[in-house]
Amino acid sequence: MTKFRFLTAGESHGQGLNVIIEGLPANLDINENYIENDMSRRQKGYGSGGRMKIEKDRAEIKSGVRHGKTLGSPISLWIENKDWKNWTVPMSVEEVDPSEDIKVQTRVVPGHADFAGSLKYNHKDSRNVLERASARETAARVAAASICRKFLSELGIEIKSRVKSVGWESSEINDIESIEWGFVEKSEVRASNQEEDLKFKKVIDKVKKERTTIGGVFQVIAFGVPLGLGSHTQWDKKIDGKIAQSMISINAVKGVEIGSGFDNTKKYGNQVQDVIEPNKDDIRNFSHLTNHSGGIEGGMSNGNSIVVNVAIKPIATMTRPLPSVDILSGEVVEASYNRSDICQVSRACPVGEAMLALTIAEEILEKFGGDSLQEIKRNFTSYLKTFKEYGNQK
Ligand SMILES: Cc1cc2nc3c(=O)[nH]c(=O)nc-3n(C[C@H](O)[C@H](O)[C@H](O)COP(=O)(O)O)c2cc1C
Predict the structure, then answer these.
(1) Is pLDDT above 70 for 79?
(2) pTM for the complete prediction?
(3) Ligand 1: which of 127, 131, 218, 251 to mutate, judged by most atoms within 8 Å of the beta carbon?
(4) What CATH number corresponds to the domain at position 74?
């Protein structure tokens, strides 16, 4: 069995994005249409920039799959950038004539990667940083995660997401059982109901008029996760730590909360712990009365839904740019502006789902490791049966 890992490559306006995923089992059904469906969800969104109208993402499966099934060998995907035809000179791999317009950028954008990246990598054109720091890269993660989601669905694990707040407007819904997921999927702002849909859009419209940008909080939930992923035995084995890292790696994400972590700080201890009771109808023979801990205790999944809230900052690139500097001349200038989103909170949701899927898939493979889907399913089922040894030995 090979350890699970994945790697992405590609620039925002380059030829396209590459992904290699290693460690997924053999005999999983997968095809390009399935992946495309997940990728199209990353492209919808109220307050998205023009780029989304150009790109209709499709990942081509280049290896690791034969006759619709994974082989157990590395899977490679290729996602073409449809805009490449307009960038063949500025993004040419070969050297170009110095008289050509290569869209050099030296006016760095406060809050973006270009200032630190240009000085660190000794680049005199901050495009060399921006091209890779761009959230275009997340398309590759969503494609990789799509195959992991198919794998997780074979074990009854499903991942969903919604927007909890945009700017100063928040969702009133805290009970995840009452979320209408059909509505969320149709809503351009991934709101939980019509009222929230309207109020989130109103914020985005106001922000657009003011020629600035706005962030928010989105929520990612994994349903059907078995008890026992991650471990309390070492700091880097804790699943909450791994989830936090995967979420914070998403462009512009600045905060991660497991369950009601921040709200819990304002309450008494007896109000926030999830009391356990015997329950013969639950696969664990026990259940929790609440899920304030977001499905994780002691760095391990406890069998409840994993609930993660993710804070994403307002986009740095704005139609009314902030004062900045030209990194070559040292002059005070306006930051550069490239086509950009007003609010990316809803578009970040599928990326959050992707990162949670990749993290959980890795944990599942580590715990139930096997080379074929059948072997993993056998290990998974027999492990779940061991819970019935508890709660009945008076
Ligand atoms: C879905 C999504 C879309 C984004 N779109 C833009 C954008 O249009 N313009 C922009 O400046 N930043 C955008 N960002 C954020 C930048 O990629 C990010 O702020 C930048 O890489 C700097 O990294 P940091 O904010 O994580 O520190 C987007 C992020 C996500 C998740």
Answers:
(1) yes
(2) 0.97
(3) 251
(4) 3.60.150.10
